[in-house]
Amino acid sequence: MSSPSSTELSAIWAIDKRRFLDIEEIILSRRRKDMGCVDSSKFSEPLPWIGLYIAAASLLCSLLMGLDTFNSFRRRKL
User: Fold this and answer.
1) Which of 36, 51, 75, 78 is 20 to 30 Å from the Cα of 17, by its Cα?
2) From CA 68, how far away is CA 62, in angstroms rounded?
3) pTM of the entire predicted model
4) Domain layout of the chain by residue ranges
């Protein structure tokens, strides 16, 4: 039996590499399915609402701190 030529080895390597990549993709897709992966494009949808909530809470907190400071000066407790 003669040894395969470099062209034959390249063809065998290409086929094996393609099979390996196909198997790897199958394994990864099963892992994603098992882990319950979600569509990551929807992660940015609630961000504007979270930002508005934080801004409103910060504004309210600042207003109440200002009111507390004003009352403290008015009652001469500060």
Assistant:
1) 36
2) 10
3) 0.46
4) 1-36, 46-78
